[in-house]
Specification:
Helix Hairpins; rod-shaped; 5 helices; mainly alpha
C-alpha cells in the first residue's frame, strides 16, 4: 500500500510538473497571440491608409482626366479657328492637332490609371476586410488562450496541492508502516514469550501433579499403622520373641520404611 501510494504521489508530481510546463506554454502562446493581434491591428491601419491613398489618387486621376478633356476641347476649338484662318492658320492647326492628340492620350492614360486605382482600391478594401476578420479571429483566439491559461494554472495549482497532500499522506503511511512493523515484532516477541510461559506452566503443572499423587499414598497408609500395632501388645506378654516378630511386621518398625519411601519418591 505504501509503495502504491508512493507511485501515485510520483504520478501526481509528474502531472504537476507537466501542468506547470503547460501553463508556461499557454502563457507563451498568450503573449504570441497578443503580439499577433497587435501586428494585425497595425496591418489593418496600414491597409486603411492605403485605401485612403488610393481614393486620393483616384480623385487626382479624375482631375487629370478632366484636364485632358478640357485640353481636348481647347485643341478642337483651336483647330476650328486655324481652319478659319486659312493658309495663315495651317501651322497653328498642326499644333492644335498635336495638342488634341496629347490630350486624348492623357485622357486614355488617366482612364487606365483610374481603372487600375479602382481595382487596387477594391483589392485593398478586400484586404482590409480580411485583415479585420483575422484581427477578430486573433482576438477570439487570444480570449480562448487566456481562458486556457487560467484553466491550466488552476490545474497546476490543484496538482501541486494534491502532490503536497499526497506527500504528507505518504509520510504518514510510512510512519504507520514503521509502527505496524514494530507492533508485529512486539506481537512476535509476545507470542514467543507466551509460548515459553505456556511450556513452563505445563512443566510446573506436571511437576505439581506428580508431587500431589506420590504424597497422597503415604497419607492413606498412615492411619492404619497405629491400629495394627498397639492393640496387639497386651496379648503377647508371655512370648517375647513372637511379640518382637509381630511388632517388626506391623508396628513401629514399619513407619520408618514408609517415611524413607516417601522421601525417595519426593
Amino acid at each position: 500500500t505504501v509503495a502504491a501510494l508512493g507511485e501515485v504521489t510520483g504520478g501526481v508530481n509528474r502531472t504537476a510538473d507537466n501542468a506547470g510546463q503547460a501553463r508556461k506554454t499557454a502563457d507563451s502562446a498568450k503573449v504570441k497571440a497578443q503580439k499577433g493581434g497587435e501586428i494585425v491591428a497595425e496591418a489593418v491601419t496600414a491597409m486603411n491608409a492605403i485605401e485612403g491613398s488610393s481614393q486620393q489618387i483616384s480623385q487626382i486621376i479624375g482631375v487629370i482626366d478632366e484636364i485632358a478633356f478640357q485640353t481636348n476641347l481647347l485643341a478642337l476649338n483651336a483647330g476650328v479657328e486655324a481652319a478659319r484662318a486659312g493658309e495663315a492658320g495651317k501651322g497653328f492647326a498642326v499644333v492644335a492637332q498635336e495638342v488634341r492628340a496629347l490630350a486624348q492620350r492623357s485622357a486614355e492614360a488617366a482612364k487606365e490609371i483610374k481603372g487600375l486605382i479602382t481595382a487596387s482600391s477594391e483589392q485593398v478594401g478586400r484586404g482590409v476586410e480580411l485583415v479585420s476578420a483575422s484581427g477578430k479571429s486573433l482576438d477570439e483566439i487570444l480570449a480562448e488562450v487566456a481562458g486556457m491559461a487560467e484553466i491550466v494554472a488552476a490545474i497546476a495549482d490543484s496538482a501541486r496541492e494534491q502532490a503536497t497532500s499526497l506527500r504528507e499522506v505518504s509520510g504518514a503511511a510510512d510512519q504507520m508502516d514503521k509502527v505496524t512493523q514494530q507492533n508485529a515484532a512486539m506481537v512476535e516477541e509476545s507470542t514467543a514469550a507466551a509460548q515459553t510461559l505456556q511450556a513452563e506452566t505445563d512443566g510446573l503443572a506436571q511437576a505439581i501433579t506428580r508431587f500431589t499423587v506420590k504424597g497422597a499414598k503415604p497419607a492413606a497408609v498412615a492411619p492404619a499403622r497405629p491400629v495394627a500395632v498397639r492393640p496387639a501388645q497386651p496379648k503377647a506378654a508371655s512370648k517375647p520373641v513372637a511379640q518382637m516378630r509381630s511388632t517388626g511386621t506391623g508396628g513401629a518398625a514399619r513407619k520408618p520404611a514408609a517415611e524413607d519411601q516417601s522421601w525417595e519418591e519426593f
